[in-house]
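Chain A, query sequence.
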Amino acid sequence: VQLVESGGGLVHRGDSLRLSCATSGLAMRYYHMGWFRQAPGKEREGVSCISDADHETITTIDADSVKGRFTISRDDAKNTVYLEMNNLKPEDTAVYYCYVDMYSGNLWGQGTQVTVSS
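Chain A, predicted structure.
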């Protein structure tokens, strides 16, 4: 199983980015997925998560700090999870990690850096 994030970069306050997490080696639709982030000197924090696609309803949960600005989505045909980030703020600067909940534990990608300048 492999997760590869992309889409990070250096942007200005108020800009948008879309992160992608391409998975391989698993039938992604059966698993909950999500994003964490870690800023320098801070603990890793949960950003958004999305339930598996094997049920009628897909639900998402967003951290209060990103609610209304970030949107997580999944395209199981492409084995990819996305994080659409709008109205970015300097405090969103962090390395963003994608994960898959394997039920016995999480598997993580290598991370992608997002830097928001003021």
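The two ends are 37 Å apart (CA to CA). The mean pLDDT is 96.
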